[in-house]
Design goal:
Blueprint (H helix, E strand, L loop, with lengths): L3 E10 L2 E11 L4 E5 L6 H9 L6 E6 L2 E2 L10 E4 L11 H11 L4 H14 L15 H13 L5 E5 L7 H18 L2 E6 L2 H7 L2 E6 L2 E6 L1 H6 L4 H6 L6 E8 L2 E3 L7 E2 L8 E7 L5 E2 L5 E10 L3 E7 L5 E7 L9 E5 L6 E3 L7
Parallel strand pairs: 3-8, 3-9, 6-7, 7-8
Antiparallel strand pairs: 1-2, 1-4, 4-5, 9-10, 11-12, 11-14, 12-13, 14-20, 15-19, 16-17, 16-19, 17-18
């Protein structure tokens, strides 16, 4: 296994820049997730690492090798795609070992690797079946098994769970986490689903429009988003972002019934965007946020509500338990000053 380094990596299609100078260090054994909205460049970046896309500028190193001009098959990577890409006329055994067979791996060695991968993925009982006899999750395991037998330096996953239903995605997330723990492998995983990113990653790389917005652990991104984009993208439900002003040590806003003191901030007397996560809001009769309940979602362990404020904007609150709130009810919401996230006019965290 090996780590990965990207230095000033660029990609353009004609005159259109898609990846705009990515610098990244991935240590051996890390599980790194590229996350961002559709079209942000995350899959393109993964394909460049795999060698399936040429880079326009910069340098990609796997271990201590510069691989800019190295063929995909010689880079020491194995890729698992969104589509399973299995051969329907072959058994699971033959699908898993097909790449080894093409490479001329002796049959006894090939057999040992196939059976070892099947054991890791708990699919020994499936080796004689064909893809048509498998569930979606089982097919994805076969595709992962085909990557494991190659014993790559780096595993690359391009939205591998997006074709599965919600319950199966949850099961497969646990399988991938277990696989990473068992193999100790370097893994890079692309998804637009920030829940997958938060639950799987050692390190998250948030991309938007071909630019890295922030790199850090899931909790670092959740607790201290670097800018408005990360604040609005990481977290479910997403953070409430509202306009306000800092006057001295107090936050004021048209949406607040009353202003209040904040912990020390680096800048004063300026317009800001302030953010409060839905889970940091609580019912307070005379709270600074007051409005009418527009939507109630009862999830059992918590109740998620949408509240219309007097200025026409809406906020989301995630309240514990199975509260008795109803649509049309007027309520007050409060939050601790320490839970407020502040961003300047440039969108950067203060």
């Amino acid at each position: 296994m090996a780590g990965l380094t990207l230095r000033s990596v660029h990609k353009t299609y004609g005159e259109v820049p898609v990846i705009k100078g990515v610098d990244l260090d991935i240590a051996h054994g890390q599980f790194v997730v590229f996350v961002g909205p559709s079209g942000c460049g995350k899959s393109t970046l993964l394909r460049m690492i795999a060698g399936l896309e040429d880079i326009t500028g910069g340098q990609i190193c796997i271990g201590d090798r510069v691989v800019n001009d190295v063929e995909p098959r010689d880079r020491g990577v194995a890729m698992v795609f969104q589509s399973y890409a299995l051969y329907p006329h072959m058994s699971v055994y033959d699908n898993v070992g097909f790449g080894l067979k093409l490479a001329g791996t002796p049959k006894p060695v090939r057999d040992a690797k196939i059976r070892a991968a099947a054991k890791v993925l708990q699919m020994e009982h499936l080796l004689d079946r064909r893809p048509s006899q498998l569930s979606g999750g089982q097919r994805q395991r076969v595709a992962i098994g085909r990557a494991i037998v190659r014993e790559p330096d780096v595993f690359l996953f391009d939205e591998p769970l997006s074709n599965l239903d919600a319950a199966l995605r949850g099961d497969m997330r646990m399988e991938l986490a277990r696989l990473h723990s068992d193999l100790g492998a370097t893994m890079i995983y692309v998804t637009h689903d920030q829940v997958e990113a938060m639950t799987l990653a050692d390190k998250i790389v948030v991309l938007d429009a071909g630019v890295v917005q922030q790199v850090g652990s899931p909790l670092e991104l959740y607790n201290r988003p670097a800018n408005l984009f990360v604040a609005g993208f990481i977290g479910s439900p997403k953070m409430n972002l509202l306009a306000g002003e800092i006057r001295g040590d107090r936050l004021t806003s048209a949406v607040l019934a009353s202003d209040f003191a904040l912990p020390t901030v680096g800048a004063r007397d300026q317009s800001v965007t302030f953010g409060v996560r839905p889970h940091d809001l609580e019912l307070v009769a005379d709270g600074p946020l007051r409005g009418e309940v527009r939507l109630v979602e009862r999830l059992g362990n918590e109740t998620v509500i949408r509240v219309a404020l007097p200025n026409g904007s809406e906020i989301t609150a995630a309240l514990p338990g199975q509260g008795q709130l109803e649509v049309g009810q007027t309520i007050g919401l409060g939050f601790a000053p320490g839970s407020v996230h502040l961003f300047g006019a440039d969108g950067i965290r203060l």
